[in-house]
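Researcher: We plan to redesign the surface later, but first we want a full-length starting point. Tokens attached.
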């Protein structure tokens, strides 16, 4: 319950305001704010009480609801010094998800800004950690099953704090100089997957990140031309370089490796420059050009292949090919735009954009590696263990042409053509081109009828597709008994694709003050040359909304949206060969899944003012429901020899529901003081068989069972009631 002191203060202030209130009609606090009167401060403070499943991470995932709050603070003031000003905007000031911005300066000469943003992300509040933290990024699993009983709860959360400082100078009307610096700090932990040989475990992976962003820019603007130059420097630093876990706990009556380790995100830096200019070529034509080169680099030291001293001491233990990656990428972005007008009814635009990622990271040869931190594999001609990293790179080009015809102020037509080209290194499709053509029409008459329509068709074709490109990672070959990639498998982002996309929206004129609008969207992609992988991706949706002003002070409104998404995937169950068993790679073991998602979203509300707007009611109810069904079937003949996919079956259905009811009553007391009483009800439920059956520590007590250790079950279900009372001040 709310404290008596907090509630009493609010009631006393409101009673004081009532004693001063006259008989005139008072606007809402928001209306007073929109007037933007000089030297006025707007602030909302209040208290709230929550009841229900407030401890569920899904409820507090991106918000912090304290008992007392300062929701909004807006301060505007002109300083005594002529021409100077100061402004402050802030939200959720007393909570972990605050946003604040302060600006001050001299009109037309300089401006100083300072911001502070904080984001809180609750990942899990119901997990249990079976490990003991012994240092930054270091965890120990106690020996003995008794030590695992009653493990403490592990709350996982992330927090981002960013500060922004900026100075803008305008020494003359044509010049603009800016300096911005933004450091950001990320702290907390999140679930991270690791393993002891074939035993999977989850650990709270620590986040201790710092990012620094420095920007400099200068601009000169003349009536017929403009030129701008800027630079940006980014640096990333991780305080925790690696994650280590240690245990001597026996699993399935055998000893697992004593420890494990993995590297965490590496320190890196990036630098970019940009120069941009625009010039009027004629009275109705203008060209804009931008060129921006950049550099990215990281050279974090490699961790050893294993943390095990016994393996490191073997005579054939391989040496690292280099102390670090010495990763180096160079980028170059070029953007050119030409716009113009032909007479009064016709206009055009032509744009070309190119982005090149030149990956100059060296390709290092690793002669051998350690698998699962348990042993050093033996490299043979039949099963070579050498590996080479592949420095991926690409060049992307885009060209757009638009022709617009506007025969009147109420109608316009647009025809357009778009071209996109990719040139890739060390990817399946070395080169691909996509062409898109379409048209749109916008029209609205004086009676209030309006139509907007868009239709476009796209065709993407890869010129050269090599499904075995990854063999470049195996200098000595993948081995005699390793299966390569299916020759007919295509990645959906690189495969041949045809796409039809269209939208249409209708706006009807008011009929007895009732306003109505509706829209429809369709998106259909087909991968005709993909024998395996994504076969098609089809989605469509409708939406409509209606509003009805019952009288000037009372309005009703409602909306509805329906979305349907369908996918189809095809693959094959395959087994590697061995000297004792032949390959099992047959189309008789193909399978196919068809996926369907349905999403319904409803909403309705009312806005009403009573007693000459001395009482304002805002109420809204929203409900959304999502449903997923995945059917899977075997495409082969179960009676044929070597049939493997006899267990193909439909996946369990998934779904979620979210409801939110918000009701608030606003009571203007004086022109400067008002208070609001707000009630919110939220309910969320999710059906996910994978989460419902999670066991914290399966396999550690049952011989022969699969081994896994998780931080705990996370099932996002909750229903919460929130009641708040707040005061609005304008002074």
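Model: Full-length starting sequence:
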């Amino acid at each position: 319950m709310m404290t008596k002191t907090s509630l009493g203060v609010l009631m006393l202030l409101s009673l004081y305001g009532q004693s001063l209130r006259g008989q005139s009609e008072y606007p809402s606090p928001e209306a007073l704010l929109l007037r933007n009167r000089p030297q006025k401060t707007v602030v909302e403070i209040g208290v709230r009480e929550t009841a229900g499943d407030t401890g569920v991470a899904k409820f507090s995932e991106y918000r912090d609801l304290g008992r007392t709050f300062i929701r909004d603070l807006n301060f505007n003031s002109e300083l005594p010094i002529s021409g100077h000003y100061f402004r402050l905007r802030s939200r959720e000031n007393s909570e972990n998800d605050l946003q604040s911005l302060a600006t001050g300066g001299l009109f037309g000469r300089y401006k100083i800004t300072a911001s502070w943003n904080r984001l809180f992300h609750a990942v899990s509040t119901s997990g249990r950690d079976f490990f003991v933290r012994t240092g930054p990024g270091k965890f120990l699993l106690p020996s003995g099953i008794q030590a695992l009983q009653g493990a403490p709860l592990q709350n996982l959360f992330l927090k981002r704090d960013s500060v922004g400082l900026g100075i803008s100078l305008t020494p003359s009307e044509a010049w603009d100089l800016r300096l911005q610096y933004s450091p950001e700090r990320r702290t907390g932990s999140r679930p991270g997957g690791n393993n002891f040989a074939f035993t999977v475990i989850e650990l709270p992976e620590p986040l201790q990140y710092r990012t620094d962003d420095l920007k400099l820019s200068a601009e000169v603007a003349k009536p017929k031309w403009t030129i701008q130059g800027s630079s940006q420097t980014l640096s990333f630093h991780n305080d925790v370089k690696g994650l280590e876990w240690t245990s001597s706990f026996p699993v399935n009556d055998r000893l697992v490796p004593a420890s494990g380790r993995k590297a965490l995100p590496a320190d890196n830096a990036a630098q970019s420059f940009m120069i941009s200019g625009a010039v009027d070529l004629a009275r109705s034509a203008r060209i804009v050009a931008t060129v921006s080169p950049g550099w990215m680099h990281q050279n974090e030291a490699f961790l050893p292949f294993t943390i095990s001293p016994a393996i490191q001491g073997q005579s054939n233990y391989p040496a690292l090919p280099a102390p670090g990656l010495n990763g180096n990428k160079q980028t170059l972005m070029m953007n050119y735009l030409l716009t113009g007008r032909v007479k009064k009814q016709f206009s055009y635009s032509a744009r070309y954009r190119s982005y090149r990622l030149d990956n100059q990271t060296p390709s290092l040869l690793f002669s051998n590696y350690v698998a699962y931190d348990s042993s050093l594999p033996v490299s043979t001609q039949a099963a070579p263990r050498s590996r080479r990293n592949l420095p991926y790179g690409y060049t992307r080009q885009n060209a757009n042409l638009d022709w617009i015809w506007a025969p009147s102020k109420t109608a316009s037509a647009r025809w357009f053509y778009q071209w996109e080209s990719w040139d890739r290194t060390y990817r399946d499709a070395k080169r691909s081109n996509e062409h898109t053509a379409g048209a749109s029409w916008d029209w609205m008459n004086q009676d209030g009828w309006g139509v907007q329509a868009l239709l476009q068709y796209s065709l993407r074709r890869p010129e050269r597709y090599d499904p075995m490109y990854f063999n470049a990672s195996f200098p000595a070959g993948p081995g005699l008994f390793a299966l390569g990639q299916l020759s007919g498998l295509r990645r959906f982002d690189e495969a041949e694709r045809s796409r039809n996309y269209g939208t249409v929206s209708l706006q009807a004129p008011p009929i007895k003050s009732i306003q109505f609008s509706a829209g429809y969207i369709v998106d259909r992609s087909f991968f005709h040359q993909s024998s395996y992988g994504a076969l098609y991706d089809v989605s469509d949706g409708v939406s409509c909304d209606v509003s009805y002003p019952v009288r000037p002070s009372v309005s009703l409104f409602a909306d509805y949206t329906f979305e349907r998404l369908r996918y189809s995937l095809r693959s094959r169950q395959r087994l590697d060969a061995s000297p004792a068993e032949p390959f099992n790679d047959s189309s008789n073991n193909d399978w196919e899944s068809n996926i369907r998602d349905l999403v319904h979203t409803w909403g309705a509300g009312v806005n009403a003012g009573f007693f000459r707007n001395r009482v304002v009611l805002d109420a809204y109810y929203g409900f959304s429901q999502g449903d997923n069904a995945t059917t899977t079937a075997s495409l082969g003949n179960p009676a044929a020899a070597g049939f493997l996919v006899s267990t193909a079956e439909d996946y369990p259905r998934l779904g979620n529901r979210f409801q939110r009811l918000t009701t608030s009553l606003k009571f203007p007391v004086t022109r400067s003081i008002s208070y609001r009483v707000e009630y919110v009800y939220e309910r969320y439920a999710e059906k996910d068989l994978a989460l419902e059956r999670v066991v914290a520590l399966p396999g550690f007590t049952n011989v022969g069972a699969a081994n896994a250790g998780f931080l705990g079950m996370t099932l996002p279900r909750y229903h919460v009631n929130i009641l708040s009372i707040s005061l609005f001040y304008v002074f």
